[in-house]
Amino acid sequence: MPAFGPQAIRDMFPAMMDICSQLILRWERFAGEEIDFLHNLCDEIVQERRKHPNDVNDLLNQIINGKEPETTQQLSDENIHYQMLTFLVAELETTSGLLSFTMYYLLKNPQTLQKAQAEVDQHNEITVDVLSKLKYIDAVLKETLRLQPTAPAFVLESKHFNIEFVDPSYDLCIQETLTMKPDGFKIRVRPRQHLGIALNVNVKQSEKIPEKLKQQVKTENLRPMSILFGSNSGSCQSFADTLTSEAPLYDYNATVATLDSAVEYLPNDRPIIIITASYEDKPCENTKQFVAYLESKPKLEINYAVFGADHHDWIDTYQKIPTFIDEMIENAGGTRINERGAGDAAGDFFGAFEIEASEIGPMKLHLEIQLPKGQTYHTEDYLAVLSTNPIEIVYRVLKQFNLSSDTRIKIVSSTDTFFSTNYPVSAFDILRGYVELAQPISKRQIVTRAGLCKNEKEQISLINLDGDAYEKEILEKRISIFDILELYPSCELPFPQYLRILPSLPLSGLGRYYGIASNYLGNLKEGDRISCSVRTSNVRFHPPEDTKIPIVMTAAGTGIAPFRGFIQERVAQFVCGREIGRTILYYGCRSDDDFLYSDELNKWLKLGAVEVKSVFSRQNNNGKKYVQDLLWEDRNEIANLYCNSARFYTCGSANKLGVSVKACFIKIIAEMQQCNEEEAKKILEKLSIDRFSVDFFA
C-alpha cells in the first residue's frame, strides 16, 4: 500500500511526466505501433532486477523487497508477475479507457474542450502542485467516469494538441474486454503551435529535507517531543519522519512511533503530535488499538495536537478518525496546543501539513561571541555581523546564469562601487560575500523586469505584482530578483545587469533581522571566527543611568533578548549593594516550554532583583493570551509607575507586539488622564522622547 500512497505518487510524478512527454513526442513523430502482451517480459524484468539489484526506490524494488508488516512475508516471483499484469489491467487499461472516453466526450462538446484547454493554458508547466488546481479538468474526468465508469483511477495530462475525430460521424460504441472502452474510436491530433509549454519540463519534485539537516545534532539541551502516526499508505508516516528530522531546528528532540505502540504510554512531560488518516471512516491498521484505548475513556493529562489526512470525496466520513481522536483526547483531560490541521489529498495535501508543522515555532539560537581583547560595549548595544549568502542560493544563481564556481570576473567601473575592480575575482566569491541575493525585489524593479518578459502572460502576471499584491506576495514572502527570474523564465536578464542592480551585503544587527544573518549564524560551529563590530543602538533604548528609576519591559518571544541584558546589569548592581528601582518584565510566548531563559529569570526573581509576569497564548490563562492583556489587567499599577517616572521599553515583532502594546498604552493613558484616544496618542508621542522606547524587528 505505501507504494501507492500520496507521498509515493508525488515522488513518482517526475517519471510520470517524463513518460507523458515521451508519449507526446511519439504522437508527434509516429503513426502508431503494435505491442505484444507481456507475460514473458514481466518475468524477464524481475529476473534482470534480481541479478542486478539497485537502490532505486521504484515500484519494482518495492514489490520485490517489501514485507508485510505483521508476518514479514514477501511476494513470490509468480505473485510479482501477476501483480505487474494487474497494474497494467487495473491501472493502464482503465486509465486508457477513461482517457479515450474523455476524448470522445470532449470532441462531442467543443465548448467543454475549449474550457479544458484554457485551464491548462494558465500554467507554464504541469507540476505535481498544479494538478490540484486543474478543477475543471478534474470535473471533466469525474463526469466521464459517471457516464462511462471503467474503474476509479485516472491521471491528468496537459492538452498539448488540438484533437479531432478521424470520422466526424462516429457515435459511441462500447467494447467490453477486461474493461470497457470505445470501440473503433479514432482521433487525430494537431500540435497547438502557439503554446509555450516545453516538453522536457523541469518537474519540481517534492521538497526533500536538506542533507545538512540530517546531520547529527547535540540533543542533550533540546526539549523532548513525541510524534505518533497512523498510516496505511505511508503518507502520514512520511509526514511524521519529516517533522522528526526538522524538530531540532525548533529546539526539540523528537521520537517517532505508531499510535498503537503508545497505548497506555502517553507521556505528559512533552508535547505529543499525532498525525493520522481515515480510511472509509475506519482507523489505519496501526491505529486500531489506540482508538479502542480512547474508547475506554482513560484519563489523559497531556499536551497534544492532531493533523488529519483524508480525501474530500469521502464526504460523509471526511476527517472522521482524526476528529474523533482530537475530541476524545480533549474529553479525557488533554490540552490542545494547536487547532487540528486537515490535509486533503485532493487539494494542497502537503502544503496543509507544512502550515501545521510551521506552528511549532521558528528556530531560535543562543550564541555567545567572544569579543577581541580591549573591545567594550554598553548594555543593549548592537553587534553588527558581516554575514555571507547561503551556499545553496549562490549555486542556484550560478546555475541560472550558466556559470561555474571558479569562473573569474573582472569588474570595471568609472564610478565608486563596493566591488573589487580591475582584477579578476571568482563569481562564487562575488555572489557569496559582496551582494545581497535575498533582498526583496522593489516595485520599480518589478516594472523594469516585466518590460523584459517575452511571454505576454508572464508579463501581465508580473505587472500585477506591482499593485496591491506587492506587500503580501513580495514583501511577506521575501521574493527576490533571482526568485522572479526563476518564476518567470521569459524574463531574461544578462549577468552583468543582474549584478549591477543588486545591493551590497549589509552588516546585519544580531537578532534584529531574519534572513541572511540568521542562516549564516545558524550554520556556525563552536570556535568559528566571524566579522563583526559593536554598534551603538538607539540612545533611548538603554537602561537609565540612575539605577533607582523603575523600568517596565514588555517582550514576546525572542524580543526578550535585550531585556536579558537589562536585567543582568541590574542584578549585578543589586548584588554590589546599589539601590535599584523596580525592574518588571512582561513576557509572552506560546507555552511555558517556549519560555526563554526561564531558569535564569527564576534565579534573579528569588534574589528580589526582578519581577516577572508571563502569559502563554496556547495555554489557559483565565482569558489572557498576550502581554497586552496583562498590561491592561495591571493598568492601575502601570499608571502608578508612570507617575513615579518609570521608563517603559518594548521589544518584539513590529506588526504584532508593537501595534498591540502601543494601542494598550494609549487606552491606559486615556483612562488615566480622562481624555479621548487621540489626545492619549499625543501624550504617548511626547513620552517616546525619553520614557517610552521601542526596538522592533520584522
From TrEMBL:
Signal peptide: none annotated. It catalyses: 2 oxidized [cytochrome P450] + NADPH = 2 reduced [cytochrome P450] + NADP(+) + H(+). It comes from the Eukaryota. This is Flavodoxin-like domain-containing protein. The keyword Oxidoreductase applies. The keyword Oxidoreductase applies. Belongs to the cytochrome P450 family. The lineage of its organism: Eukaryota, Metazoa, Spiralia, Gnathifera, Rotifera. Residues 225-365 form the Flavodoxin-like domain. Keywords: FAD, Flavoprotein, FMN, NADP, Oxidoreductase. GO terms for molecular function: flavin adenine dinucleotide binding; FMN binding; heme binding; iron ion binding; monooxygenase activity; NADPH-hemoprotein reductase activity; oxidoreductase activity, acting on paired donors, with incorporation or reduction of molecular oxygen. It holds the Pfam family p450. GO terms for cellular component: cytosol. Transmembrane segments: none annotated. Its cofactor is FMN; FAD; heme.
